[in-house]
Design the sequence.
């Protein structure tokens, strides 16, 4: 069994990448006319970039402890975070295809971990 601390690197990578996307959406909504100066001074763009930098750092740490074939499919869990953030933060609708897609993603991750024979 792997150390749970090591799996936290994958969870942090998911969190930081999700936050980067969420801040990107806020940035896009906050700029009426995107200009270079407006982008450079927009706090949401800056926060998004910081989150993506942190994601890259923790992702490299995750890859020290997990093979890419295991770690990368876990990143698809970002879909869950983004879907629910879109619904709660931006009043976007969750549709039946969204739910079916998440079920398929979950099933795929479950099969991957069962097939690999290792416990996360």
Sequence:
């Amino acid at each position: 069994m792997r150390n749970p601390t090591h799996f936290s690197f994958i969870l942090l990578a998911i969190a930081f990448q999700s936050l980067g996307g969420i801040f990107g959406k806020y940035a896009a909504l906050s700029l009426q006319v995107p200009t270079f100066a407006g982008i450079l001074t927009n706090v949401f763009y800056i926060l998004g970039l910081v989150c993506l930098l942190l994601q890259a750092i923790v992702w490299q740490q995750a890859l020290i402890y997990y093979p890419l074939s295991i770690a990368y499919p876990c990143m698809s869990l970002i879909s869950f975070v983004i879907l629910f953030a879109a619904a709660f933060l931006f009043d976007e609708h969750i549709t039946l295809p969204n739910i079916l897609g998440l079920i398929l993603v979950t099933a795929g991750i479950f099969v991957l971990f069962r097939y690999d024979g290792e416990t996360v």
The longest helix spans residues 4-30.
